[in-house]
Amino acid sequence: MAIRSRAMPESRSEDVEAPLSPGEWATVSEQRALVYGWLSTLYAAEIPQARLAAYLAGEAAPLLEGFATMGLGAEAGRLQAAIDALREVRDAHLELAADFAQLFLLDASAGALPYASAHDAGQGHLFGPAEARMRAFLARASLAIRDDFKEPADHLAVHLALMARIAQEQAGAADVAEAARDQAAFLRDALLPWLPSFAARSQRASPRLDLYPALAALLLALVEHDAGFLGDVAASFARGGPSPASCGSPSRRRRSG
Amino acid sequence: MSFPRRDFLKGMAAISGTGLVAPSLLTPSPGKAQGAGVEMTDDITTWKITGSHFGAIRAKVVNDRVLEVQPLELDQHPTEMIKGIIGLIYSPSRIRYPMVRLDWYRNRHKSDTTRRGDNRFVRVGWDEAIDLFYAELERVQQEHGPWALHTAGVGWRSVGQMHSCGNHMVRAIAMHGRSVGTIGDYSTGAGQVILPYILGSTEVYSQGTSWEVILEQSQVIVFWANDPIKNLQVGWNTETHEAYAYYAQLKDKIARGEIRVISVDPVRSKTQNYLECEHQYVNPLTDVPLMLAMAHTLVTEELYDAEFLETYALGFDRFVPYLEGKTEDMVEKTPEWAEAICGVPAERIRELARLMAGNRTQLVFGWAVQRQQHGEQPYWMGAVLATLLGQIGLPGGGISFSHHYSSVGVSSSGAAMPGAFPLNLDPGRTPKHDNTDYQGYSAVIPISRAIDALLEPGKEIDFNGAKVKLPPYRMGVFIGHNQWHRQQQRNRMKEAYHRLETVVAIDYNWTATCRFADIVLPACTPFERNDLDAYGSYSNRGVLAMHKLVDPLFNSRPDFAIFSALCRRFNRENEYTRGMNEMQWIEHLYNECVAENMLKDMPMPPFAEFWEKGYHLFPEGEPWVRHASFRDDPEVNALGTPSGFIEIFSRKIERYGYADCKGHPIWMEKIERSHGGPGSDRFPLWLQSVHPDNRLHSQLCESEPLRETYAIQGREPIFMSPEDAAARGIAHGDIVRVFNDRGQLLAGAHVSDDFPPGVVRIQEGAWYGPTGPEIGALDTYGDPNTLTMDIGTSSLAQAPSANTCIVEMEKFVGTAPAVTAFGGPIEVDPDGNPIKGDA
User: Fold this and answer.
1) Is the minimum CB–CB distance between B39 and chain A shorter than 8 Å?
2) How many CB pairs below 8 Å do chains A and B form together?
3) B31–A1: do the CB atoms touch at under 8 Å?
4) Pairing state between β B220-224 and B181-183
């Protein structure tokens, strides 16, 4: 059984909007970085008790309403409902921690391993080629994983943190088209090949609470939607011709997945 | 249709700064490429060296990742098992963080223990995990005392003398307080207790006659329930596999017609198929009647060695009346009597007896026949048979109980091997809780009676001439073994575990023992730490360096670090470590070994040179004959038996007065038995659970690449005859349900001509994966101990009786539940069907 989000609107060259202005790109890049950072945080570790209190106080509501505005109402609503349901749960932070463990820390048979290698067809173990590619990518980018995060480089939270970082770094890119293509390529090559499998396993596992299954559904929808956005931005430049400053921007495209 | 860009931008605009984002996992590291290390070439001699039960290996390690494993160039007969090592290190079943079962985390020792096995754990940091472990030890010692803490007997811990995990656990716990320990093991429990009465030593763990001698002198070799070609793949210390060279020579001798080799076994073994030797079928569990009838022939035809009996053995006169039918069951043990039980034609029994008496005959027993109810008897009777033949102590004659184990039969170099991290308290030291009051309970129990202790608290049982009062311990610490693999009768275990308040398990992969624990601590694998090991458990071929291949993965730690931290809680860390770190210990153990070998005139290089090269080898030893010195002079070199002689009749055992183990070997019907035995009308198939061919007990079962080579539809194979398969409409490759009154499991049908009707095999060590924590749950992978019986062999040894087990099976129809035993990335849909590729 595969979880697929809705049919993704594909951008077509005869039907695109005008190129994005550098200001618009900068703003949305910052916002996208924030979204990826938020997703990375949720997959890096259990939700601490204090932060759970913030969720219960409605701190995620603007975020989720924003996603609804984008057209991801079903996924955002499901997650909001999952958060609201926690109010009735005794020791919700502990139950969520046990869900986190069952899904991501114990094993694949009971959950959804958050490693690209675990979703590689024909790959019998962790630390597979996907992990090696990600490590090489980070090394070339002079990036290191924090010492207290004791996970392989192909962990979902690392992918999301990297995407957040790239979006942030490229917020001021002179060549917006290339930056968009670059980021779309990262999503397509490094994340989207296995994210549907991960999301599907998150649905099939039966944790006690719906928060993590709901989050996985939202994650997949967001990433696919973001890829669609990036493709649309790149295509709009292709129709409108190269952007004036493209020659000054070194290519950042790196194959990592 | 265009991308709804405006909606996207509008939605994003609603997202502003939020406190919900933690600092990034990524930090800039200019100039520091993570994981960069020394590049290794394809020149294998530049690769790192380390050891394992499966042999010495070299590993290609690039950027802190093990890319390839090859046998050490010294190993001429490596096992396929080393192909499982990478899968073991990078197994999806790795324990990645210290974990505490959620309900235990909430309620501590008052948790709902019926929920063990439901996969509800929370992650904790190391400090909190060790604090919880320590607090629980404190509670148990203060509230109850030493009878309430069980330190379960360590089994096949990973190799490495410094990091031998059992030593770390035993020493650290002993510094804190006393506990209930165990005696014996699951492999040779009956043999190691009975044989000291008969032959004066355990024999099962003794060096045997050298293969050079056997190949030169033996005219007949009988492998009795013994499959060395299968079992020699692994060794207690790093295995050299040197014994295989002799089996190759034996195979040639058989082909040339220079020797007769007979495999006595219900099944055509791997060894028989390799050697292309003769097969003697015998009904399961009826080896004793077969041997009694052979003895009967030797006596009635006066083929036995009267002179040998006179000089070296006691009790023949007490035994003969039993053969003659004048005592006990009052039945004469004729070949015709035996034929009806064991299925071997009477004339063939006579032939075998004559053949063995007329030739230099080496009997070589495996361990399987003593892992059954009354498992003492076949070993005792085997020893009696060898005594009647009179060849004990002669080159190429007599009896062995160990040639299938750890290259026994390869001559010993005589060199000293490195010692280990200390097991015990340092001299003069006492535990923090210096309490010796076990409140009348026994401080040591026979290892496989650990479940009885929980279910029958305070019960007094017989054991080896003593009484044991079973302590209903409240807390168990499990390390260096997989209790939920080796112990029999899963559903009984589940019931017993409901009575355990706290279970601590320390391992590197999520075994069932960990799934059914409360506090789970992730040790790193032996490939993630430096160590040294003996190379060759009996040949003492050399000393092997174990280079750390990669840093500990995830948040795992060496056992040394785990127990150092525990001792820090009661301010005795420095005493525990003696102020030395890992490499200082390794060098210390090496230098002690150097000093010992200096006295033997066997020089060794300085540590640094040894470490760089990776090993030091000693010269080959001299051929040797077991029991030859006893035969030379039985007064000076008396056996370790009560009399100093071979005891066909044991007055000491007779005086114990046990109904199930009397003064000499006798045939006793089993509580259940196939082939016309008790219960065979309902459950007609004998289930044997032999040592596996593709792993070491339960080790490597979690290695996905290795398991793919033998599993059937993702299940452990059950081997069966074409006849039994056909009678049940089962085809090779089907999923079958195997069951009896004790449990049920799913396995994959492997139909093979090697198996006779009425005999099925599931190799022990298959990981337990029940559908749920409830008693009676279907095991989804095929752990045979779901079906085996948890009874002691007898009042003497109280050892496991795994091979006394009958079952029925049927083709499984419908949708099989998914395998829950592993962390493997095998994807299944909600109906349990495997998903290939993209989900």
Assistant:
1) no
2) 264
3) no
4) unpaired
Of B18, B22, B27, the CB nearest to A59: B18
DSSP B324-354: TT-STT-----HHHHHHHH---HHHHHHHHH
Closest alpha carbon to B194 in B827, B660, B741, B779: B660
SS3 content of chain B, % helix, strand, coil (to 5): 30, 20, 50
Whether B22 and A44 have beta carbons less than 8 Å apart is answered as yes
| Distance (Å, whole) CA A158 – CA A138 | 10
For residue A9, the chain B residues in CB contact (below 8 A) are 1-4
Number of H helices, E strands in chain A: 10, 1
Q: Does the ipTM surpass 0.85?
A: yes
pLDDT along chain B (839 residues), means of 10: 88 82 90 56 91 98 93 97 93 94 96 91 97 98 98 94 97 98 97 98 97 98 98 98 98 98 98 98 98 98 98 98 98 98 98 98 98 98 98 98 98 98 96 98 98 98 98 97 97 97 97 95 98 98 98 97 98 98 98 98 98 97 97 98 98 98 98 98 98 96 90 97 98 98 98 98 97 94 98 98 98 93 49 37
Cα radius of gyration rounded to whole Å, chain B: 28
CB contact B61 to A (< 8 Å): no
| Distance (Å, whole) CA B718 – CA B762 | 5
- Under DSSP, the state recorded for B23 is P
Cβ-defined contact of B102 to A54 (cutoff 8 Å) = no
User: What 3 state SS string does B585-651 have?
Assistant: HHHHHHHHHHHHHHHCCCCCCCHHHHHHHCEEECCCCCCCCCCHHHHHCCCCCCCCCCCCCEECCCH
What are the Cα distances from residue B753, in Å, to B273, B759, B805? 11, 11, 22
Structural fold of domain A13-246: TorD-like (1.10.3480)
**Are B557 and B522 within 8 A, CB to CB?**
yes
As given in the structure block, the two tokens for residue B339 are 């034929």
- The closest of B190, B183, B180 to B800, measured between CA atoms, is B190
Contact yes or no for B27 and A24 at CB 8 A? no
Mutate to test the interface with A, among B1, B2, B3 (most CBs of A within 10 A): B3
**Cα(B803)–Cα(B808) distance, rounded to whole angstroms?**
15
Which residues make Cβ contacts (< 8 Å) with residue B350, sequence separation at least 6? B297, B301, B335
Work out the angle at residue B165's Cα, subtended by the Cα atoms of residues B164 and B170, and round it to the nearest 5 degrees: 110
Go through chain B and tell me how many residues it has. 839
Q: Which residues of B471-510 are buried (b: 16+ CB within 10 A; e: fewer)?
A: bbbbbbbbbbbbbbbbbbbbbbbbebbeebbbbbbbbbbb
How many angstroms separate the CA atoms of B328 and B649, rounded?
A: 14
Answer for the pair B229, B399: CB distance below 8 angstroms, yes or no: no
Residues paired with B615 in a beta bridge: B544
Q: Which of A14, A107, A140, A166 to mutate to test the interface with B (most CBs of B within 10 A)?
A: A107
Provide the residue ranges of all domains of chain A, joining segments of one domain with +: 13-246
Three-state DSSP class for B462? strand
Q: Which two tokens stand for residue B401?
A: 């109980």
Rounded Cα–Cα distance for residues B459 and B441 (Å) = 9
Question: Residue B70: is it exposed, middle or buried by C-beta count within 10 angstroms (0-12/13-18/19+)?
Answer: middle
Q: Cα(B626)–Cα(B393) distance, rounded to whole angstroms?
A: 6
- Contact of B763 with B230, CB cutoff 8 Å: no
Q: What is the DSSP letter of B557?
A: B
Single out the residue of B713, B757, B719 nearest to residue B738, CA to CA: B719
Cβ–Cβ gap B12/A28 under 8 Å: yes
Quick one: tokens of B130?
């060790």
